Amino acid sequence: MSTGLLFQHIEKHIPLDAEEQAFVSSLLQVKKLKRKQVLYQEGDIHKYQVFVTAGCLRSYSIDHNGFEHILQFAPPGWWIGDMRSFTTQTPGVLHIDAVDKSEILLIAKADVERLYRQLPPFERFFRILAENSIATYQHRMIDSLSLSAMERYDNFCRTYPSLIQCLPQKQVAAYIGVTPEFLSKMLNKPA
């Protein structure tokens, strides 16, 4: 099981000994996704926390006109999911699929609760993740309301430097909130 990246990520916030790592590993499921394979659709209940070990996933919504609005990309080392659905075990509003051939680690809600009981530092770990996530989404919301499209594009490049060359422009445009045509014109405009 490819848990090395996950344990590097966890140990930035809480230390784990070999026995604790073995316990965490016993709770994980590995899943491989093909390019464009759907993990969750709108209306699905998100039963797992999802950690990306290879490839890239994205979360998005589709509006009533059929346009995608990408909320997040998750390259290796990132978590992704519909937190409200996971927390409340109610139908989610996000679609999540694989941008590329990917590998993910899944941990079920009941197993997260087990971690909290048996390894209390994991409450701290997931609290830190939640706080960072809230701060990131607040910042992104403010940016989407106050920054120009070019400034949002520059922020995207800083947030996802490893993805800028490999993502289709259509997906970058959906993330920053413009049409692909507008993005193309904006990027080809002389400085």
Automatic annotation (TrEMBL):
InterPro entries in the record: cNMP-bd_dom, cNMP-bd_dom_sf, RmlC-like_jellyroll
Signal peptide: none
All residue ranges annotated as the Cyclic nucleotide-binding domain in the record: 31-118
Protein name: CRP-like cAMP-binding protein
